[in-house]
Structures are given as structure tokens and as C-alpha cells.
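Next up, sample data:
>
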Amino acid sequence: MLKRLPRVVREQQMLDAAVKVFADRGFHAASMDEIAEAAGISKPMVYAYLGTKDELFIACLQREATRLMETVAAGVLPAAGPDEQLWNGLRSFFTFVGAHRDGWRVLYRQARSEPHFAGELAGMRARIVEVVAGLLESACVAAAVPARPGDFVAMAYAYVGAAESLADWLADHEEEDPEHTATRMMNFVWVGAESLLQGRVWRA
């Protein structure tokens, strides 16, 4: 007899199973039968709790995106200097990806490949870009470095895009240490950012 569990616990079990199946099989190849079997429940129960496959996939995206954002936000300490804030954010980000590789594959690969889910990913990226742009602007203001408002957003998109690409690489290399990956990213972006904060820019 199936043990009765609180609804929230059962839903998390279903989402865990769905993320694994979607990551392994892809959205189109994944079936509700596979997801139900992986969760150890009946297919009608999956539909009753989380709806259609499209609705289930969106629920997976929203949960993984929320987890990612909460992890990064918790890692960024407002009182720290600009380099420490960036470092803490990157370390939290790559630690999350290292611990939730299936979740990252669903977020970054599956959502991007499905146009009708791309809006969910775009919303997540926009929130991360906003946070990074805010950090850059605060750092420039504190260092009295002149910059146009659009510069912060453009730089934030560049940083986020680079971090996403490296995270996608990390997801496929389980032998890699997330903190070392964060260090690589820090070395890549901070040298340029530090120069900007000191007022040095490249000119043609």
C-alpha cells in the first residue's frame, strides 16, 4: 500500500523524478509513464498533482530557477567589497550547478531548445543580470568611476553569458571541483572589472 505523505513532500518527489527524466531524455522523449515510475507513483497521480507534461516541465523550471536564485542571493554578502561579492556569488552559483547537474541541464539546455519554454529561462536570466548589473553599478559609484547606465547591463550580460557557458561545461565534467571552476571564472572576469574600477579602459 502506498504510504500517505504530505502533498508538498509528494510533489517534491515528483519534481525530483521529472528533473532526472527530463535531463536524461529531453522534453519530447520523456514520458509521463517514465516520470511516474521514477517517482514510484501512478501516472494519474502525477497529472492530479502537477498537471500535463508541459505544466510539469514548467514546474521543474520554476523550482530549479528559484533554488538557483536563492542560493546565489544567500551567498552574496552586501557588506563585502566588490571582488568578494562577485566571488561569493560565483562560488554559490557553481556550487549549485555542481550539486544539481540535472537541474542545470533542464534549465539551460532543455528550456533553451523549446521555444514555448524560453520565456521562463529569459525571466531567470533577466533577474540574474539585474543583480549583477546592480553590483557593478554600486562598485563603480563607490570607486567614483564614470560609466553610462547601459554599460552595467551590457557588462552583466557578458558576465552572465560566460558563467552560463562555463556552468554548462561543469555539468558534463563531474570530476571538476565547482569552487575551482568559480576561481577560473573569477580570474577571467575580475582582472578586467578591477581595471575599470581603477579608471583604466582600453581605447582604439
About this structure: The chain has a mean pLDDT of 87.
